[in-house]
């Protein structure tokens, strides 16, 4: 776990840097999505408010007299304005005799059809049956001063007159009504009297020529204002308003006969009315209701302008059911090209109540019945609007992400990548230096010893163990010259990283030079050890010849001296010599070995606790004796004067442990884990007195090569060293 954390720590800066850019990009995307969601919620709320306002506007318009006029008079299928047809008024009748009343009524109802040159006309009937048989005509025209007709005059063409033509039930009625003046204070006003005239000689029911007597049921008035419409014109043109009540013979005859009639008439749309205002003489008409360019009054079709795309307005008369439905839909906008991904994203964003259908219902009461107003909304317009907005914003978000990506790429290639290369080379250099110093060799050797100890006895693993052993030997023999393969010259530069690479490259060059000098010194030291070993081996060989009896104790000590010289002979340093020593591990009876060590160690007052029966372990006799000799000398150096050194053997199922105990001062806590390292000693001037700090290092190295362990611990009255060796499974011991 610690190794994994250390490995991750080597990438920490790069991970933090890249993660920061990743979080920055994610933050930009999250901000855009959040803003889009808030905009969707805001747009949906705004659409609901606008939808409710649209319904209120429609209902308020329909409840106005002009709206009720539109409800009572649905638009014609053809859409033509002229010739005019009578419209059903939201009033029972018109007070046509009073100027202000009739003008206010037709303006409120909005039934006027407007023409050029200040002309307008309203052709209507009352909704009540009491006004059945009457058609109301009210409008305006512009002319000069009106010329009135005198009752004594037989001719009618020398005055201003109104000509009315009505076609219904296959019959045509034409009335000619001249203006008869009455005195007025602020305007020229008077009534018009109608005379029926012949329109077509082929129609026998139409009278020929002006009738000698006026039409009794015809009533009409005409008022002319005194102010000129344009004071700059040489001929003063004034505006006139006329109001007529026309009685239709066919309808009047039906009422007189007492038949049950339907009011308003079901064939009202087939009626045709034409009104002309003629000047004195045979000049062109001052006003003609069949002129082109007539502007129709407000109708239900005009409500479509209030509808947004996708919205549907349905008007239904309650007593007639769905057959009376009038449906209009908002005009569809030109679809904006949006990305399908943005559309799916907008649809996915959660908004409360977004998927619920939008419907608002209201009711408008008219004189001829109640109408239900049903308005259905369509949130797709919100999606389209948001899609267009998101499409424009996506370019900015993409530009921000591209800028972040470019910044990351520049820093990655310009800083992080060179730092990574520098780190990898520094780690490789560190591994090389550690291997050159022998630290990795020790760890690998210990690991190989564990493999040999654990699996070397099994035949199936012997080839693998041999290959590992040969590989470790090749690695340990690798020279320090591998530093030559590391070069930082390609990372040099003038920026901060380049300056760091310059310093490290210069430092590496110095290290290489020091390594070369160290190699030369090691070779010289090795040659020195060769010479020393050669000079020592000759006298020892002569002494061994003198003491040739193996039972002679001197023979044993001379053999150990030769073994020590062979270990150091030909090595560059003592630590390297100890680590490269090859042992011949065999079975040794530890119960018999300990008393001999206590007796011949050359240290006074060493006591050994006897153990019954043999305790065979895996070890090499001479190196094991050197291990006990080094530990006992160390115990003798630090024991309290007059106290013994005890050796105790503990026998387990697979291991045997020897405890060497001395009474004295404890080992300092800061040194208890370092005393087995080469050159470590608590005495400041140990080297001057011949103590090189290598005794315990040799003990640990030899124990590891024999598959054992050594450790030290502080006890209550002193220090104990624990030496553990692997037991031999067979009962045979050397």
Question: Pairing-aware structural class of the strands and helices?
Answer: alpha+beta
Low-confidence stretches: 199-209, 437-461, 476-481, 685-690
CA radius of gyration: 61 Å
> Class of the largest domain, according to the CATH hierarchy?
Mainly Beta
Instruction: Please give the share of residues in helix.
Output: 40-55%
Number of domains: 4
| Number of helical segments with 4 or more residues | 15
How much β-strand is present in the residues? 15-25%
* 3D shape: rod-shaped
Mean pLDDT: 77
Distance between the termini: 44 Å
Using the coordinates shown, work out and report the CATH topology of the largest domain: Immunoglobulin-like
Largest sheet: 12 strands, mixed
* Count of extended strands: 23
CATH architecture of the largest domain: Sandwich
How would you portray this structure in words?
- About 7% of the residues have low confidence.
- 41% of the residues lie in helices and 20% in strands.
- The strands form four sheets. Strands 1, 2, 3, 4, 5, 6, 7, 8, 9, 10, 11 and 12 form a twelve-stranded mixed β-sheet that branches.
- Helix 8 packs antiparallel against helix 9.
- It has four domains: 223 residues, Immunoglobulin-like; 122 residues, no CATH class; 73 residues; 145 residues, Heat Shock Protein 90 (2-Layer Sandwich).
- With 734 residues, the chain is an alpha+beta fold.
- The radius of gyration is 61 Å and the shape is rod-shaped.
- Strand 5 and strand 6 form a beta hairpin.
């Amino acid at each position: 776990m610690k190794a994994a954390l250390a490995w991750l720590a080597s990438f920490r800066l790069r991970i933090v840097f890249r993660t920061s850019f990743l979080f920055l990009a994610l933050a930009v995307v999250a901000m855009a999505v959040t803003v889009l969601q808030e905009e969707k919620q805001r747009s949906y709320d705004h659409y609901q408010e606008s939808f409710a306002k649209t319904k209120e506007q429609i209902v308020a318009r329909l409840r106005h007299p002009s709206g009720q006029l539109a409800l009572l008079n649905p638009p014609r299928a053809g859409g033509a304005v002229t010739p005019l047809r009578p419209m059903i008024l939201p009033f029972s009748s018109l007070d046509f005799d009073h100027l202000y009343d009739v003008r206010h009524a037709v303006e409120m109802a909005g039934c006027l059809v407007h023409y050029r040159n200040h002309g307008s006309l309203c052709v209507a009937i009352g909704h009540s049956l009491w006004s059945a048989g009457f058609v109301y005509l009210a409008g305006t025209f512009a002319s000069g001063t009106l010329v009135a007709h005198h009752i004594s005059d037989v001719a009618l063409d020398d005055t201003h007159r109104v000509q009315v033509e009505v076609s219904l039930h296959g019959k045509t009625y034409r009335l000619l009504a001249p203006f008869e003046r009455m005195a007025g204070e602020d305007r020229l006003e008077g009534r018009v009297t109608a005379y029926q005239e012949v329109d077509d000689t082929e129609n026998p029911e139409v009278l020929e020529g002006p009738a000698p007597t006026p039409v009794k049921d015809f009533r009409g008035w005409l008022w002319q204002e005194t102010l000129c419409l344009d004071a700059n014109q040489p001929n003063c043109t004034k505006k006139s308003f006329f109001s007529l009540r026309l009685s239709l013979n066919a309808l009047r005859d039906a009422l007189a006969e007492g038949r049950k009639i339907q009011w308003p008439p079901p064939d009202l749309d087939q009626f045709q009315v034409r009104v002309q205002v003629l000047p004195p003489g045979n000049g062109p008409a001052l006003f003609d209701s069949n002129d082109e360019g007539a502007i129709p009054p407000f109708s239900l079709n005009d409500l479509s302008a209030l509808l947004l795309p996708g919205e549907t307005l349905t008007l239904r008369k309650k007593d007639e059911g769905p057959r009376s439905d009038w449906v209009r839909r908002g005009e569809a906008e030109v679809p904006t090209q949006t990305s399908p991904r943005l559309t799916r994203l907008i649809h996915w964003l959660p908004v409360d109540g977004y998927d619920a259908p939008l419907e608002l219902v209201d009711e408008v009461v008219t004189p001829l019945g109640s109408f239900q107003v049903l308005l259905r909304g369509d949130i797709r317009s919100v999606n389209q609007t948001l899609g267009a907005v998101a499409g424009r914003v996506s370019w900015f978000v993409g530009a921000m992400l591209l800028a972040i990506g470019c910044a990351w790429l520049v820093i990655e290639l310009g800083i992080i990548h060179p730092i990574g290369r520098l780190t990898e080379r520094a780690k490789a250099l560190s591994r090389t230096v550690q291997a050159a110093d022998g630290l990795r060799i020790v760890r690998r050797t210990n690991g190989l010893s564990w493999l040999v100890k654990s699996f070397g006895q099994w035949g199936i693993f012997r080839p693998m163990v041999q290959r590992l052993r040969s590989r470790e030997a090749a690695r340990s023999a690798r020279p320090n010259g591998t530093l030559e393969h590391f070069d930082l010259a390609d990372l040099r530069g003038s920026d901060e990283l380049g300056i760091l690479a310059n310093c490290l490259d210069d430092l590496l060059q110095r290290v290489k030079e020091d390594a070369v000098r160290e190699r030369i010194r090691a070779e010289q030291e090795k040659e020195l050890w060769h010479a020393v070993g050669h000079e020592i081996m000759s006298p020892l060989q002569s002494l061994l010849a003198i003491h040739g009896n193996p039972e002679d104790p001197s023979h044993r000590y001379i053999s150990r001296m030769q073994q020590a010289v062979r270990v150091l002979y030909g090595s560059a340093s003592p630590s390297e010599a100890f680590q490269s020593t090859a042992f011949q591990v065999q079975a040794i009876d530890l119960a018999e070995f300990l008393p001999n060590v206590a007796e011949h160690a050359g240290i006074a007052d060493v006591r050994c606790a006897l153990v019954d029966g043999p305790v065979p372990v895996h070890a090499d006799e001479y190196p094991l004796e050197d291990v006990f000799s080094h530990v006992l000398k160390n115990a003798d150096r630090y024991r309290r004067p007059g106290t013994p050194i005890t050796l105790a053997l503990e026998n387990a199922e697979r291991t045997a442990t020897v405890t060497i105990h001395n009474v004295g001062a404890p080992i300092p806590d800061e040194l208890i884990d370092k005393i087995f390292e080469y050159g470590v000693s608590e005495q400041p001037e140990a080297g001057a007195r011949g103590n090189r700090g290598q005794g315990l290092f040799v003990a640990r190295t030899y124990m590891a090569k024999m598959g054992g362990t050594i450790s030290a611990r502080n006890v209550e009255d002193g220090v104990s060293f624990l030496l553990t060796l692997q037991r031999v499974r067979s009962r045979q011991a050397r």
